[in-house]
Specification:
Blueprint: H1 3-10, E1 17-21, H2 25-31, E2 37-40, H3 44-47, H4 59-70, E3 77-81, H5 90-104, E4 108-110, H6 118-126, E5 131-136, H7 152-168, E6 172-176, H8 180-189, E7 194-197, E8 205-208, H9 210-213, H10 230-246
Parallel strand pairs: 1-2, 1-8, 2-3, 3-4, 4-5, 5-6, 6-7, 7-8
The structure holds 3-methyl-2-oxobutanoic acid.
The site of 3-methyl-2-oxobutanoic acid has 10 residues, from loops.
Length: about 260
């Protein structure tokens, strides 16, 4: 097994797993210093491309962004979302997962749970592809956002789904928008780590969309904490640059490539 995956597994019940998304090198390079897992999420559909849902993201989009992210990664585990429609059956899933891994050299792929596709996960794992699962609010398949696991029946259903994904061989599982009790029940009953998003503290780790926590996406549901208003900081810098160009204050002598000696 990949050393980085072993490290993630060893954190269960010991220390929290930190994860964020990235879609390009410059952000990935910063994240890599601190986080355990960098996910190239298909959330890029909403965040970067302005789509209403994630279904329009293609395999080519994901591969292209992962190539950029990979350039910024040295130590963290690089996981890539398989876009909707790229893992409809075992053969298609294997062909596409293999292509993602071959082209990007990422460590693992993530599949959203749907119907009985834990069988596809099992197939990929038998073919030596590392897989992260994803249950709860799975944007590729569920249109209506709602907190899941609000009663015993729903919790048992989610637990059963998570256990099947674990049995299929996934090394960890994202649990999105689950009630605190559902998150606790699943986290306690699984040997693999749970990575929560909008699912309380009762998870082995947490993930957020970087652009949300940096305050640059314009999308801030209750479960997101904005750690900085990066949009304001960028705006301030762009405003200052604009003024300086308009007033001929930039570039200054020191910014000339050949130095001030060539100035009149
Ligand atoms: O696409 C994504 O960014 C994700 C995370 C929100 C878990 O799947």
């Amino acid at each position: 097994m990949n050393k980085k995956i072993k490290k993630i597994l060893s954190k269960k019940n010991k220390s929290k797993i930190v994860s964020l998304t990235a879609y390009s090198k410059n952000i990935a390079k910063i994240l890599d210093k601190y986080v355990d897992i960098v996910l190239v999420g298909d959330s890029m559909a909403n965040v970067l491309y302005g789509h209403k849902n994630t279904s329009k993201i293609s395999l080519e989009n994901i591969i292209q962004h992962t190539l950029s992210v990979k350039m910024g990664i040295e130590k963290s585990l690089l996981v890539v979302d398989m876009p909707k429609g790229t893992y409809e059956n075992k053969k298609i899933a294997f062909r596409n997962a293999k292509l993602i891994i071959k082209k990007t050299k990422c460590d693992a792929v993530k599949l959203e749970s749907h119907k009985k596709n834990y069988k596809i996960i099992e197939y990929l794992i038998n073919k030596k592809i590392s897989v992260m699962g994803h249950i709860g609010f799975t944007p590729q398949y569920k249109k209506k956002f709602k907190v899941e696991g609000q009663n015993k029946k729903e919790i048992y259903k989610l637990l059963d789904e998570a256990l099947k994904i674990e049995k299929a061989g996934a090394f960890s599982i994202v649990i999105e928008c689950l009630s605190p009790l559902a998150a606790k029940t699943i986290t306690r009953n699984l040997k693999i780590p749970t990575i929560g998003i909008g699912s309380s503290l009762n998870c082995d780790g947490q993930i957020l969309v970087s652009d949300d926590m940096l305050g640059i996406s314009g999308f801030y549901p209750k479960f997101v904490k904005k750690y900085v208003n990066l949009d304001k900081i960028i705006e301030k810098a762009v405003k200052k640059y604009t003024r300086e160009v308009q007033l001929s204050k930039f570039p200054k002598n020191t910014n000339f490539l050949n130095g001030p000696k060539f100035r009149k």
